[in-house]
């Protein structure tokens, strides 16, 4: 059986068990690369498994892609996660639609969080206290256009509560 698995593109890792690190093998058997991450993601092969999964993710429906990605990412060792993050920062262009959409969601979330913090920073610089409920509402917003409006309004309102009262929020 082990020879049969190796013949299908599986590599030996750890205690002699099969480990998918090949992108083509991962595309052909996405479930197997997820299992490889679970079994071997904490070993040296973690990074190669993660990269192989990204290649396989492009061919999955959104539901399976999300579920499998969660399992794979939570199974990888810290070094593998750091390496994949470094690939993102260095301008690495992901090959799969999944990876591109996953990164785009992270970028969008970062923009939203930064804009919410900008609104609160304007209040702080102006010496206006933002009550807890206002602060929570600003930080809970996921609408970038709303946060842009609030940022402009934060410069002119005389009380932090006016920010929400004038927008109907």
What does this protein look like?
69% of the residues lie in helices and 4% in strands. It is mainly α and 169 residues long. β1 and β2 form a beta hairpin. The protein is elongated. It starts with a helix and ends with a helix.
Which keywords apply here?
169 residues; mainly alpha; 10 helices; 2 strands; 69% helix; elongated; disordered N terminus
Give a topology summary:
Blueprint: H1 2-7, E1 11-13, E2 17-19, H2 23-28, H3 30-40, H4 46-57, H5 62-75, H6 78-89, H7 97-126, H8 132-140, H9 144-154, H10 160-165
Antiparallel strand pairs: 1-2
**Mean pLDDT over the full residue set:** 80
**Helix content class:** 55-70%
Name the structural class. mainly alpha
Report the end-to-end length measured between terminal Cα atoms: 62 Å
User: Segments where pLDDT lies below 50 for 5+ residues?
Assistant: 1-16
SS strand fraction: under 5%
Tally of helical runs: 10
Compact overview of the structure:
The protein is mainly alpha-helical. The protein is built from ten helices and two strands.
